[in-house]
Amino acid sequence: MDVEEVDPISGRKTTGHEWNGIKELDTPVPRGVLIFLIVTHLFALLWWVLMPTWPLGTTYTKGVLGTDQWQRVEKDMAHSQAARAPWTTAIETMSFDEIIADENLMAFVRGSGRQLFGDNCAACHGMDARGAANYPDLTDDDWLWGGGPENIAETLRVGINSPHGETRVAQMPAFGRDQMLERAQVRQVALYVRSLSHPETSTADNAEALQAGREVFLANCAACHGEDATGSRDVGAPNLTDDYWVYGGDIQTLVTSIHGGRQGHMPTWDERLSPSEIKTLALYVNDLGVEKP
Amino acid sequence: MAAAGRADPLGVHGLLVLLYSGVLLAVVLSSLFEREPHPERLSRYYDDPIKVGVALTMIWAVFGMFIGVWAAAQLAWPSLNFDTAWASFGRIRPAHTTGVIFGFGGNALIATSFHVVQRTSRARLADQFSPWFVIFGYNLFCLLAVTGYFMGLTQSKEYAEPEWYADLWLVVVWVTYFVLYIRTLARRKEPHIYVANWYYMAFILVVAILHIVNNIALPISLAHAKSYTVWPGVQDAMVQWWYGHNAVAFFLTAGFLAMLYYYLPKRAERPIFSYRLSILSFWGITFFYMWAGSHHLHYTALPHWVQNLGMTFSVMLLVPSWASAGNALLTLNGAWHKVRDDATLRFMFVAAIFYGISTFEGSFLAIRPVNSLSHYTDWTVGHVHAGALGWVAMITFGALYTLVPTLWRRERMYSNVLVEVHFWLALAGTLIYIFAMWNSGVIQGLMWRTYTAQDTLAYSFVDSLVAMYPYYIARTLGGLLFLIGAIVGSYNIWMTARALPLSRSEQDLPVVDDPATAPAE
Amino acid sequence: MRELFHRKLERSALGFVFAIIAAASVGGIVEIAPLFTIDETVEEAPDMRLYTPLELAGRNIYIREGCYACHSQMIRTLRDDVERYGPYSLAVESKYDRPMLWGSKRTGPDLARVGGKYSDFWHVAHLTNPRDVVPQSNMPGYPWLARNALDVDDLGLHLQAQQTLGVPYSDEMVANAARDAMGQASPDSAFADGVSERYGDATQISSFDGVTTQVTEMDALVSYLQILGRLTDAAYRGTVAEEQVPNPNN
User: Fold this and answer.
1) What ipTM did this prediction achieve?
2) Neighbour count for residue B165 (Cβ, 10 Å)
3) Which architecture characterizes domain A85-167+266-288 according to CATH?
4) Cβ–Cβ below 8 Å for C166 and B381
5) Phi and psi at residue A13, to the nearest 5°
6) Domain total in chain C
7) 10 Å Cβ neighbour count for B511?
8) Average of pLDDT values for C72-80?
9) Is residue A221 marked as binding?
10) Is the pLDDT reported for residue A5 higher than 90?
């Protein structure tokens, strides 16, 4: 079998072996491959000298540059914080009104705020901040805890029913489940509340039920929502006479809310976001409401 | 297992094993009543297990690729899981990867290795029973793996998801495979071992090492499927990616290079371009690859020094990788007219090209600054599929179209037109897929790190997700084309085995000149 | 000369086998073994706490559903990662993770510090149908989690296996695993006190899915998601990142 022959096409000798018809040429390794090999090894060698690389028992070579990924990212972070500083310091130190008056700062707020909102708030309130079922619309002018950037910033800082020490607390009791009201009463007060924002639902046929509902309301709900049902921002009780609803204003949802209560939850952002980021977000959200015609 | 598992999902697997062994036992028992086979068969190559292996390869290909297309479609249209647990993305994704890597790729490797080792050693497989044990045992492992994922049984180790009992079973199968292979090699009548066998040996050996080290785990009890790995946190990260990267190296590269080294020169009827280059690339790949795994963990909590080792070795690895691709392409010198006319050879030619592209891309993505952009994005997915579709699947189809007519002793494939159709479907599918993923990956990576003029992040995560949808649809289409190609190929192979007349021309016998083993006439 | 030697090697199958094993072993040994011998690989964090049985069960559901296929739990040492997700992850934070879940793909956002970011109520809504709260999402819904009762009986075995592997669970924790899992998800029950006793006051005890009558897989998964990034505050120390150390009482 060991017969060397010359391949007619390449002019190269074979190695003299054959495996089921397959032969090999004895072509030397092309010079390009060797050069390429040397280049990549030189690159590796250089990197080994410069950077941490080789383990040595209980330690490793640190590299002559004396840097590592932790130092580098800390440096990058410091650099980027410094680059942002003119904006963030201004946001942190100036009053809300001053910032709103400054078109440049507001451009910053709209840019940075959009990303901050998207990565932190949009999960509940949506990318467009228009909310969803169970999560309030932030672009309207209906605010449970008061609108305006100061109030919004405070809500962001402490949250609502959050673990923060100063959290805003709002508890809508479970009137039905905890047997404070009977089923008929729940239904009556739901009809009554519905009629506040939809006067057309008040007809001669249900006048009696509405009257009963009004009495239940005054006895049970008015303490928080007020006798006129316009709500209270001190306890986050919504205005029930307008047509803005967090959970829904149809009869079925109203019955559910009154029966089972509501404990809306807004996380605290005190630790996760810096004071300037919280302020930026408050301004961003406030700005969404302003732009709305 | 069935008894011990009882309420645990392990019980279901126990029943599956019983059923599987029952069916196999029935087949074995029924063959006991057949006539005593002629002793002459011992002087022939043992090809029956290979035929079964080829069939299983194509079944797994269609299954795995179908699951892949489905998973891809779910990313674009998430309701396609119909709110069922077993069909949700997180469960079918490992079913796809296992189906194509281990089902399709593994069966192709086992089948072709049985073929190649016999031909290049001029020896019959060393044993009568163990080839069957390897093939059916291996497929039982795949079956346990995939059905396990649907039930939620997974270790979560990427490309090593099956739980401890399946892993143990694979060790048994794999050791049998190794012993069979090495015994057959020991019977060889050629003094030297051919390059393809170097690669098959590296594939079998190193996969065994990787599999055992990565899967050492403590089951919570022998009656439960769940286990906890012995490797904690950061060490587990290193072990997992040492395994993960070298599963690519020794399963998806070494094994398929072995295929390339046999079927490409065979089909082209040309000698290998350079024996010396083969030596350089083989040992380069075997040595360098094992260092490169940590490039999957750039910028993570894995110590920086390991990341740097991984990066530098990944760069050095490019030379032996390209040497292999170059060696394959230069082997085609003098056969370019065949590449033009013969879709089978073209499959292998394109595979070598994609091998070159994806190994370059791999080394490129291993460079830290590049990786900071590409990692966690679809670019990685695109890279994997450039390798998996362009290289692994194409070389397999090329090898199968060369192997199948020989195996069933036919003159040619049932339809050369269908091979041509398959080729263009596969190529179009691959290109659409990887271009979609390149685009989406680069866009995604850039959106995550784009800063505004005031040095604040410009986009939120959801912005980047919204930008992905068109590409997710495009990749589903690419995958679908590739799947259709595989179905066409399966049909063609089926018809070749069933509908073509036997060819009498080929004398495919081990050692006809040796009187001791020559067929008694 | 090399060529001559290689010719010889090619004639010996066993020789070739050993040569392959030798060449292929070096990389793994050099890269993996020192991770156990170099002390600074895993940072010191005396405040590091253990997963409660409920959180561990949740982690196993996270694994079962393949969440790691789309979500990483690894904030890299890159400025955009840190600015988006919080301080970069440290090795010590996954010290008790078997296996680790650093992930390889972000089809969805990183979750390394998602604990406490959103309410339990939001997580339940989001896991049940992500598009109810995030219309752009392509994440699958997991409505069955709230329907499936959590299998708490085996949790003792889980803790025991972890204990054998070196996670410092006490025998008392192993013995009370099932009870603690139920206690953590039922704030009003008699079992709740034992949880804070054994795992610390910072443990979140809550009716995660809003239903206290049974402990579901949803409870377990949400409890796990809420602990992500809150096992230790090591990552917040000595960094210029703007986030504050989380208050354990929050």
Assistant:
1) 0.94
2) 22
3) Orthogonal Bundle (1.10)
4) no
5) -75, 150
6) 2
7) 14
8) 96
9) yes
10) no
